[in-house]
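Q: Could you fold this chain for me?
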Amino acid sequence: MPIERTADQLRAIIRTQTEIAASDLDPEAIMQLIAERAQELTRASAGLIELLEGDEMVYAVATGEATPFLGMRLKAGASLSGLCVRENRVLHSPDTGDDPRVDGVACRRVNAVSMLCVPLCHQDETVGVLKVYAPEAHHFDDSDVETLEMLSALIAAHLSHANLFEAESRESRRDALTGLLNRRAFEERLPVELARAARLGPLSLCLLDLDGFKGVNDRLGHPAGDEVLRQVAKILGGSRVADDCFRIGGDEFAILMPGTSEDEAHVAAHRIAEEVRAAALGDGAISTSYGIATTVDRDAEVLRAKADVELLEAKDRLYRRRDRENP
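A: Sure. Below is the predicted structure, expressed as structure tokens.
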């Protein structure tokens, strides 16, 4: 490895440490900065901080090509990052295509052909990993391992000064009741997906809300309403769009569908609506209305407005039908 590159990496790490020490960055911003430096210094396509939650590894911070997958969950027992946590050592997959240690489906989805994971430790416990990946095999070398190890140590050095792994930091983009990503995560994710659609197209947005939800709260109480929301989130979590679902309001949900045409989005939304109806939530009172919009440009307001108009039209049709059935 050229000495010049190693020296540049070391200078960048020192600069990062100085930047953190001289600033009042909050814990989340520190993690974001370090993930960005990891991606930059290893010439990777993505940088990640994954944290262990139960038996899952969660994309708590994501940069580069991994940004759209913020909040994605992988089974710790079937992923390289989970193995990195269990063994508390650096793990390198030069080619994920023939590596049985990785989650092959997840790697293909995020376009991770080579991958490097370094454990993150807090109070003598391995709590997650700092990870980078690239779209070509054999991308990383020993210098990259050293870089990630130094950045990992840099995070650990700040744990005593900032609670980087506290739940409020990890969960700031996740809805506490349902476990889905929240409105903040949606607002951050939408422009990223729109930028990708402008290059790769198309992007479909589904806005969905629950019909009969207020009645459930009124008749059965708010705990019953909360259970309805959790069950709807479970249905969304079991769908093919699980990592792209958001709770953006009381009984309002948004689903981003990258690479999905309007017709395909209607099929996916209809399937979800049928699952909700079949679940007989709230003593059978709950159904759904939804609106779909599709674009290949970067105009978020137009996309949301079109989906919202379709949603309102669907609600209007529902009310008119109920009026006819119950004159």
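A (continued): The first helix runs from residue 3 to 21.
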